[in-house]
Amino acid sequence: MKRIISIVLASAMTATCAACLSGCGGGASADSADAGEVNVYNWGEYISNGEDDSLDIIEEFEKRTNIKVNYTTYETNEELYNMLKNSNVSYDVVIPSEYMISRMIDEDMLLELNFDNIPNYDNLMDRFKKLACDPEGKYTVCYSWGVTGMVYDKTKVKTKPDSWDALWNKDLSGQILMFNNSRDAMAIAMQLEGIDPANCTKKDVDKAAAKLKEQKPLLKKYVMDQVFTEMENSQSAIAPYYAGDIMTMIDNNEDLDYAMPKDGSNLFYDAMCIPKCSKNKENAEKFINFMQDPEIAAANFEYLNYATPNQVAYDDYIDEDAKKNEFIFPSDEYLDKCYVFSNVSDEVYSYMQEQFVKIQAD
């Protein structure tokens, strides 16, 4: 699928380059004088980069605008936050998750966007124009979104799971993986206990911790990136993870499949923002606008497997089979059962982390 769309896009982009430059707020042509730079700070492995016949988006942006991209990566929202808060490094575009965006807005760390420079904002799906973390839509342009679900090995799990309680299945003892981060692990336990993870208290954390203690003897291990090795090599039976990454695992092992819990799930999204330390705001807005060009958004989706919020890309460029995949693009009915992580108080979040560490240590 990546190969097909890269060929289509390469032809289309040659024909539409001039129009796209106009859409990027009047960016310089490739043979013009140097147009400056933009410092982009993104998650690792989170942009189409030319591998596997994909489009090299950074290279394409530099070619069209003559703006140099200085691109660096982080591994967690907290690493991003600490870098912005505690260093003298200047970044122009950052791509935090929903709960971290809330925190950054609360702490006055972001600049309001000039949407006159981001006309491609109009391409976004209505659901993703004013995010829960930015209800007035002043600071964010959604980058990608998805839900959390389960990946399971059909040779080990004979019946397709339909609830998070599959992660407590005693018949799979020693073959179950669990998130190695407190926020996601606690949220799954909370949903099974009928608790809204988006608005949890210390008492809610205690209930979730008790549920996770019940699970621990059944686990093979707590994982994050190790889930790829475990599941793609058929070393474990079932694990929770993020939709886009689960689809990548399935591509690499035909014995794997996805499961969407009827209990509901986490609707997560990352969004492009401009931090107050930015020294190149106009170039940052050109980059953000470029990322929401429908062809670029489609190419990024094809590489990442994470759903695009771009309606025009979805309508005109995304493969029909992908659009029919309910895990990548869940129905509105399913999304209405999902929660979005909020910026819980430091006190509750610290307590959540403390309890999770205790569970792992016991």
UniProtKB/TrEMBL annotation:
It comes from the Bacteria. The keyword Transmembrane does not apply. Spermidine binds at E45, Y99. InterPro entries: SBP, Sperm_putr-bd. Its main location: periplasm. Residues 1-18 form the signal peptide. SUPFAM superfamilies: Periplasmic binding protein-like II. GO terms for cellular component: periplasmic space. The keyword NAD does not apply. GO terms for biological process: polyamine transport. Keywords: Periplasm, Signal, Transport. GO terms for molecular function: polyamine binding. It is found in: Periplasm. This is Spermidine/putrescine-binding periplasmic protein. It comes from Ruminococcus bromii.
